[in-house]
Amino acid sequence: MRLGSQVIITDDFERTISQLETLGTNHRFVNIIKEDGFLVEDVKFAIEKASIASEETVVIIMASKKFSDVVQNRLLKILEEPPPNKEFIILTSQKAMILGTIRSRLPISHAQYHKTEQNLDLDIKNLTLQNAYAFIQQHQRTSIQEMKVIIELIISAAVKSENYRLDFKTLELFSDAVSVLNVGSSPQFVLSTILLKLLANKKSNNLSKRSL
After folding, report:
1. Which residues are paired to 179 by β-bridges?
2. Three-point CA angle 120, 124, 125, nearest 5°
3. Per-domain residue ranges for the chain?
4. CA distance linking residue 151 with residue 55, whole number of Å
5. DSSP label at 165?
6. Which residues face 28 on adjacent strands?
7. Is the pLDDT of residue 54 over 90?
8. Across-strand partners of 30?
9. DSSP secondary-structure letter at 202?
10. What is the pLDDT of residue 118?
11. What gap in Å lies between CA 9 and CA 178, rounded to an integer?
12. For a surface tag, which of 47, 163, 168, 170 has the fewest beta carbons within 10 Å of its beta carbon?
């Protein structure tokens, strides 16, 4: 872990902030922690703090499980042209929550402490058309931001299961899935596309046995 403007994907905000503070004994920290969601008002507060002239380096940490597109777009300008002696660190729990425009401006690192994985409520290893359809129906009203997280979890689980033939085109589809959500594609359409592609690429029992 290092100091400097960046995005850190972490499952423990307090522990990560504590570690960052130990690295910056000559720095001043401004910590803005909003567990449930970072607001436009919080962005304004961060910008106000960044606008105060300071000879010492000020590290502004913004931590939340959710950063809306509006909030992230409000942050773009100050991330592109930070005031002198100011560093910005964004802490969040899912990489999928971060817009591509932010990712292109800040490096991303990880600080994971707990090994428990988020429950998908879907058995990816033993995916069937029936449970895929039920899962799609369950997420008819899921937001774009939430769907980004779900898609990444599905892809991760599929790769770990080794139950699918993951050729170049499939991996390319996975890579593009979050990107098309960022440009406004229907979350339900993207989810359906990913699950149907997995079903089409699922290894047969015989093939699985021969590969052992």
Report:
1. none
2. 135
3. 6-111, 129-207
4. 44
5. -
6. 58
7. no
8. 60
9. B
10. 55
11. 17
12. 168
